[in-house]
Amino acid sequence: MSSPTPAAPAAQPRKAALAAWIGSALEYYDFFIYGTAAALVFNKIFFPAQSPATGTLLALATFGVGYVARPVGAFVLGHVGDKFGRKRVLVFTVLLMGVATFLVGCLPSYGSIGVAAPILLVSLRLLQGLSAGGEQAGANSMSLEHAPANRRAYYTSYTLSGTQFGQILATAIFLPIAVLPEESLLTWGWRVPFWLSAIVVVVGLLIRRTLEETPVFEQERDRHEVAKAPLAVLFRDHWASVLRVVVAATIATVSTIFTVYALSYAVNVEGLSRTAMLWVGVLANAVALVALPLFGRLADRVGRKPVFIGGSLGCGVLMFAYLGSISTGNYVLIFLVGILMFGVVHSATGGVWPAFYGEMFPARVRLSGMAVGTQIGFAVAGFAPSIAAALAGPEGADWVPVAWFVAAVCLLNVIAVATGRDYYRTPTERLGERPVPRENPAAAPVAP
User: Transmembrane ranges (predicted)?
Assistant: First the structure.
């Protein structure tokens, strides 16, 4: 009986992680340029008839709409991924995201077609959300199932690292756009980042079509063990894990508050430099690119729970410092705290959860479980900027209730993680199984 070549086991995890990284970067470039545009210009382009505060609130709400569609995408694409394979999901998501994003850049303004403009905007945002609903779960499942059992957190951390790079790319593209004269910015400048998604579609499709299906899924298919109705199996046997992931995934609130609400608050309320605040995001995400795999390595040594919990508690505290620094207008303080909170501390959660969530489920429902659980939690996070804008009062200047809101969310996801099981030492083929006794009762000595 022939054995695989020694290079194969080492090569496949790297290839899967790289493909997931690049694909996620391209996918989330599309998703994040919408958030940047919503914070900076959409209130003037699609909601000019409203007061500035109301227009900003409505623009941020359209950002949240994408998160409403994500659970729907999770149900549909989770079923497809667990029944027909991870690769199909990854090819479809990048195509749908790219097309929807390109069309956003083609939309006429409110001044041209009236209320139809924001309606079309929301419709395309829904398509973006459907795509994102299956993206990370598909990429995470692909990386996790190819990874060595003792390095799952390290390899899956590259999925989220790709997401961070997509955010850097999206923000960097907006840096030269943001310094355009107001008239140019509002007429054609904001459209350029969306039109560039045409390149994203081509590159993303080329990369993802070269992916190989995971050995775990192929074995299930060969043994005819693929679930006919993955969602039914998921909610019948693994509903507690889904609920735990939903609550834990609200940690994404830190990300949406940092990237959308805080940017809008700094520029539109405190009058800070648009370019400087965009640079805070670029540098914080650049630091995260390095921090994420390091925290993944740490989680492979000490477990997922202590790393995640430490990161979440740190974010809950540092959000007070970050929003407070924006209120002072001190750019040095803003950069230092922003990079520390989002680039370093938040990365402790991001480097862990791709493995931690996926390990809660067996392979036959892994993509569904991750997709449904994370996307419902992310939907809460998607509306966090709108909730924050309401909490900040009519003038938008009261940041303290916003910080308390983030701290409360962080506490909830800490409770969810702390009360769960850590599978970091469990073999990949046994992931998602219920705990078994340490000793075999049958082997116990018989009393005389």
Answer: 31-49, 55-77, 89-110, 155-180, 192-211, 242-264, 276-295, 307-325, 331-357, 369-393, 399-420
CA 433 to CA 425: how far, in whole Å? Answer: 13
Instruction: State in Å, rounded, how far the first CA of the chain is from the last one.
Output: 48
- Residue 136 near residue 78 (C-beta atoms within 8 A): no
Question: How many angstroms separate the CA atoms of 366 and 141, rounded?
Answer: 7
Burial of 68 (0-12, 13-18, 19+ CB in 10 A): middle
Query: Which residue's structure tokens are 């969530």?
Result: 357
Q: In this structure, what DSSP letter does residue 260 have?
A: I
Contact at 8 Å (CB) between 108 and 186? no
The backbone torsions φ and ψ at residue 226, rounded to the nearest 5 degrees and listed phi first, read -65, 130
pLDDT per residue as tens digits for the range 400-421: 999 999 999 999 999 999 999 9
Q: Are 238 and 360 in contact (CB under 8 A)?
A: yes
Closest alpha carbon to 25 in 216, 171, 126: 171
Cα-to-chain-centroid distance, residue 277: 21
pLDDT digits 0-9 by tens, 63-93: 778 777 888 888 898 888 888 888 888 888 8
Per-residue tokens: 84:
């027909």
Helices (H), 110-267: 110-113, 116-146, 152-178, 182-187, 192-195, 197-208, 215-222, 230-237, 239-248, 252-256, 262-264
Q: What is the CA angle 96-352-425, rounded to 5? A: 120
Instruction: Please say whether the dihedral angle defined by the alpha carbons of residues 342, 343, 345 and 346, taken in this order, is positive or negative.
Output: positive
Q: Across the chain, how many H-helices and E-strands are there?
A: 23, 0
Q: Do the Cβ atoms of 319 and 340 come closer than 8 Å?
A: no
Q: Note the helical H segments in 105-151.
A: 110-113, 116-146
pLDDT digits (tens, 9 = 90+) for 134-164: 887 888 888 898 888 889 999 999 888 888 8
**Do the Cβ atoms of 38 and 260 come closer than 8 Å?**
yes
- Contacts of range 239-242, beta carbons closer than 8 Å, 24 or more positions apart: 241/360, 241/361, 241/369, 241/373, 241/420, 241/432, 242/369, 242/372, 242/373
Closest by CA position to 292, among listed 411, 172, 159: 159
What torsion, rounded to 10 degrees, do the Cα atoms 69, 92, 41, 63 define?
20
For 109-119, b/e burial (b = at least 16 CB within 10 A) is ebeeeeeebbe
